[in-house]
């Protein structure tokens, strides 16, 4: 029996098939998504309903399509942009469908910027401040509920693939990404 990626307690195994939530755009492509549909008006100033891509299941068509649409270079070793999302306004067919997809890569590291812009440096500190006293519940980010199980853990910390908040995996507490380095220096480090 094939497992649902949403029910895993640890990350998907590269090369193995899973049932993955997907949405279909009117161009016919199916896009693997992670987490619930949401908007980000209050801190990020993105009031549109959207999902975030689950890059672990991106195939060659999705890579080609995103590159052709000016998303810069997506590589198996990481991504050079953040807030990977599919906005819903007139672009999606009906609802979410689980598709049988092979895990192609571990979740890439999350860069903090898209790229770093003046706008980014204003919203990320506000987001961190708003969630400084929130904790992970069932390994879900308290900001938009994206699952963090099976994501890379470095020095006991995990970074949400949606918006970049970082948490201590043991205590569930937010660990600021801005206290020791500036946003821009973190971005250069990741690239």
What report would you give on this structure?
There is one protein chain. The protein is of the alpha+beta class and 191 residues long. The chain has one domain (5-190). The protein has helices spanning 41-44, 60-68, 118-130, 183-190; strands at residues 17-24, 30-40, 46-53, 74-75, 78-79, 85-87, 97-102, 153-154, 157-159, 166-168. The strands form 3 sheets. It has a 5-stranded antiparallel β-sheet. Strand 8 and strand 9 form a beta hairpin. The chain starts with 16 loop residues before the first strand and ends with a helix.
How would you describe this structure in keywords?
single chain, 191 residues, alpha+beta, 5-stranded antiparallel β-sheet
Task: Give the gist of this structure.
The protein has 191 residues and is α+β, with helices and mostly antiparallel strands. 18% of the residues lie in helices and 25% in strands. It has one domain.
List the topology elements:
Blueprint: E1 17-24, E2 30-40, H1 41-44, E3 46-53, H2 60-68, E4 74-75, E5 78-79, E6 85-87, E7 97-102, H3 118-130, E8 153-154, E9 157-159, E10 166-168, H4 183-190
Antiparallel strand pairs: 1-2, 1-7, 2-3, 3-6, 4-5, 8-9, 9-10
In total, the number of strands is 10
| Gyration radius from CA atoms, angstroms | 16 Å
Order of adjacent strands in the largest pleated sheet: 6-3-2-1-7
Encode the helix/strand succession as letters: EEHEHEEEEHEEEH
